[in-house]
Amino acid sequence: MRLLCTGARVWRERQTVWRDLEKVRELAQARDQKLTVVHGDAAGADRHVRAWCERTPEVVEEKYPVSPTMWRINGPRAGHLRNAHMVSLGADGCIAFCVPCDKPGPCCGLGGVVLPDGHATHGTHGCMDLARGAGIEVWERWAT
Predict the structure, then answer these.
(1) Is 20 helix (H, G, I), strand (E, B) or coil?
(2) What is the C-alpha to C-alpha distance for residues 82 and 92, in angstroms, rounded to an integer?
(3) How confident is the model over 84-140, as pLDDT tens digits?
(4) Which is deepest, 4, 10, 35, 58, by most CB within 10 Å?
(5) Which residues contact 21 (CB under 8 A, 6 or more apart)?
């Protein structure tokens, strides 16, 4: 079973991330499948995912951090390009750890599309859209 994780860089709820990942691990185990967890190794939610993977040795972790060179060449698009790459690798599901965007609106997403009120932070929203477009089921977990 392959799980893509995305989430806000300001995500603080470690226990929520760990609890959700544990549920997926149990599901994979019940299906007699190896669990591979894919994430972008960014701050916030990704760091909680990484920490859980490090404590769960039977899980295969794939992390795709954005390198300083990618940031220099691509600027703010670097994270979106990384997310597109992770989605292109495929997944059985995607957990998105969402925090509402706090930028003054209206906001535009990839391709200049105006984002709806109450949307998640831009990287998370973009990754969810890409995953859905690739036919990957997305489970949204909103911060409390």
Answers:
(1) helix
(2) 18
(3) 999 999 999 999 999 998 888 788 877 777 888 888 888 899 999 999 999 999 999
(4) 4
(5) 3, 5, 37, 49, 52, 56, 95
Task: Collect all residues with Cβ–Cβ distance below 8 Å to 87 and sequence separation of at least 6.
Answer: 4, 127, 130, 131, 134, 136
pTM above 0.70, yes or no: yes
Read off the tokens for 95: 């957990």
- Identify residue 117 by its one-letter amino acid code: D
Report helix angle 45-55 to 14-30, nearest 10: 50
Token pair belonging to 38 = 């894919």
* C-alpha to C-alpha distance for 13 and 141, rounded to whole angstroms: 11
Q: How many CA atoms lie within 13 A of 113 on its CB side?
A: 11
Domain at 2-142: CATH architecture: 3-Layer(aba) Sandwich (3.40)
